[in-house]
Amino acid sequence: MRKRDREKLHAMLIQQRDELMKSAATATSSDIQLDPDDFPDEIDTASSEANRAFQGHLRDRARGLLAKVENALEKIEDGVYGECEDCGGAIDPKRLFARPVAELCVHCKNEQERLERNQG
Predict the structure, then answer these.
(1) What is the DSSP string of 26-70?
(2) Residues 6+ apart with CB under 8 A from 49
(3) Alpha-carbon gap, residue 90 to 112, rounded angstroms
(4) How far, in Å, CA of 16 to CA of 13, rounded?
(5) N or C: where does the chain have the smaller number of CB atoms within 10 Å of the terminal CB?
(6) pTM of the prediction?
(7) CATH superfamily to which 3-119 belongs
């Protein structure tokens, strides 16, 4: 991978990490603990619980993405960023610009998805 591409991808990953951290800080500071006795009926309570569950799901997904971003940044530092974790070949820079946290080349990712479809 060219040095210029690696530097651009590094900057993209740093920006993505910063946005995820800022979003997480905003989400945690705006969490509101509501007392179920404050709701006039069961529908409001159920709606509030569903909303909290959905927000928890979004936080879990963001936490997973943040871990992938951190992993990609470590790979850049270690000099192995852009190498497929399955076959060891190079991941096309176009794929990395589309998904900077990609861990597999297109061929290996397609194979992984094919196996998952056949199993599930």
Answers:
(1) HHHHT-----GGGSSSHHHHHHHHHHHHHHHHHHHHHHHHHHHHH
(2) none
(3) 17
(4) 5
(5) C
(6) 0.75
(7) DksA, coiled-coil domain (1.20.120.910)
